Amino acid sequence: MVKKKILFVCLGNICRSPAAEAIFTHLVEQKGLSHLFEIDSAGLNGYHNGEPADSRMIKEASGRGYKITSISRKVDQISDFQKYDMLIGMDNSNYNNLKRLAAKTATEHKVYRMVDFDTERRYTEVPDPYYGGREGFQRVLDILEECSNGLIKKMML
Ligand code: 4NP
Predict the structure, then answer these.
(1) Of 17, 33, 96, 124, which is the most buried if we count CB atoms within 10 A?
(2) Cα–Cα distance between 42 and 113 in angstroms, integer?
(3) pLDDT in tens, 48-95
(4) What is the DSSP string of 16-79?
(5) Tens digit of each residue's pLDDT (9 = 90 or more) over 5-50
(6) CA of 60 to the centre of ligand 1 (A)
């Protein structure tokens, strides 16, 4: 069985994409589908390389039963685009940067926005919560839960 490889990508890889990775992993495990997926996350700027996720995001996610364990790493301009089947950006800037990088390996077709999987089409992007308060982190989790459910439904079609 060839696994579907999914990489969630934000700017710093300490808030949104680690949460997306944890939520999607949780959902896949809950459905007994772990054997079908390889899931990771990465950031576009590398400023927090080697660091655990932001403690505020770990706390808010833990309140909903998600365990965030990822360590921040920068997206690789070549190997990540070759390895992963889907690279999913959190906001429009992440998406545009991923598209630009994908051109180097002719893999633009692998690049998506997280909100592409919001079946209700209610969200335009997953906003950066870094400089805001607790509500921003909660809103990110709301959006990510919605989109992760949509993504898994799409994958199971
Ligand atoms: P993230 O949030 O992209 O959701 O991990 C950010 C965290 C840190 C920075 C930017 C965004 N930063 O530039 O330090």
Answers:
(1) 17
(2) 14
(3) 999 999 999 999 999 999 999 999 999 999 999 999 999 999 999 999
(4) HHHHHHHHHHHHHHHTT-GGGEEEEEEESS-TTTTPBPPHHHHHHHHTTT-----B--BPPTTH
(5) 999 999 999 999 999 999 999 999 999 999 999 999 999 999 999 9
(6) 16
The token duo for 49 is 């390389």
| Distance (Å) from CA 45 to ligand 1 centroid | 8
The reported pLDDT for the residue numbered 1 is 79
Question: pLDDT by residue (tens digit) across 95-146?
Answer: 999 999 999 999 999 999 999 999 999 999 999 999 999 999 999 999 999 9
Instruction: Note whether 64 and 30 are within 8 A (CB).
Output: no
Rounded CA gap, 73 and 51, in Å? 8
Residue of 9, 14, 125 to test ligand 1 pocket, by largest number of atoms within 8 Å of CB: 14
| Beta pairing, strands 86-89 & 37-43 | unpaired
Domain segments of the chain as ranges: 4-155
- Ligand 1 pocket check for 146: Cβ under 6 Å: no
Total residues belonging to the chain: 157
Domain at 4-155, CATH class: alpha beta
Q: Six-digit token pair at 50? A: 């080697």
